[in-house]
């Protein structure tokens, strides 16, 4: 690290020491607790994730507590955070630690990468924060800080751009205080170098920042166009019989794998109510005189990163006590 790069890191860490948010995972070097915080905060704002983190570590304070839990309990505690594969991967990773690592949660970068769901970002964060491993962390906040600091024209979501961000982040890393440095860069992106309204006058790196000098901060980071979103049409049926409701689990390989849902028919395009009910009758070998239609709700739209869900809900009362045979649905009180 040359003198300029040393000064950049020193300024970052000085700023971080003064202005960092008081968050519970910053008062520990326990790699398990740091790992939990990193996974919870992926795709989640701190304001939303903090309560989930607190509940999670209260229920699972040690890795063996998480490993011993039923997956349904882990998913229930995760409910509302979305991206449920994160919770399933955490549960599997905890079991890996118990079975393969003698119950000791690792702090070594390469070992962390062997755990289910742990990628380069999470491994770098846990290893550097818990053990000062000299590896730079790269997330969305770091993409933004680095690309603005160096006026990086390559798209940060391209293969070459990702490689360059990593190289530039490594170039300013204080390898003797890697954990503090990495947290400082991420905190700067979260509090000062924000996407739309960066507070450049309050930034400790203002005098080093190329995009500030050129008045181009909002031009960065450069990104490739997003993949076109896929449209999906879900017809949900709230089916009751003798005071019980039919529910089923999402199948393996689905992003909501293992989660319970109402009776679902997915269609290629939006059907009208009559067509949806005809498909329901055909799928479950029912005739219209075997149930009462209680309500048909309006369509709801739910936007995800790679798909848009259009969901319509129907409430039905079965007049006879019969199963929805062969489709994996069971009755629940």
Please outline the helices and strands.
Blueprint: H1 3-19, H2 31-41, H3 46-59, H4 63-68, H5 71-78, H6 85-100, H7 109-112, H8 120-131, H9 140-149, H10 159-171, H11 178-191, H12 210-213, E1 230-241, E2 244-249, E3 260-267, H13 273-284, E4 291-296, E5 300-303, E6 307-318, E7 330-332
Parallel strand pairs: 1-6
Antiparallel strand pairs: 1-2, 1-3, 2-3, 2-7, 4-6, 5-6
Helix pairs in contact: 1-11, 2-3, 2-8, 8-11, 9-10, 9-11
Q: What are the main properties of this structure?
A:
alpha+beta, 7-stranded mixed β-sheet, elongated
In words, what does this structure look like?
The structure is a single chain. This protein is an alpha+beta fold and 333 residues long. It is 42% helix and 15% strand. It contains 13 helices and seven strands. A hairpin with a 3-residue loop joins strand 5 (300-303) and strand 6 (307-318). The longest helix is centred in the first third of the chain and has 17 residues, at 3-19. The model has no long low-confidence stretch (mean pLDDT 93).
Number of strands: 7
SSE pattern, N- to C-terminal:
HHHHHHHHHHHHEEEHEEEE
Number of helices: 13
* Overall spatial form: elongated
Low-confidence stretches: none
The chain-level mean pLDDT equals 93
Q: What is the radius of gyration?
A: 25 Å
Query: Which structural class should the secondary elements be placed in?
Result: alpha+beta
Strand content: 15-25%
User: Biggest sheet, open or closed, and with what strands and sense?
Assistant: 7 strands, mixed
Q: What is the helix content? A: 40-55%
Distance between the termini: 64 Å
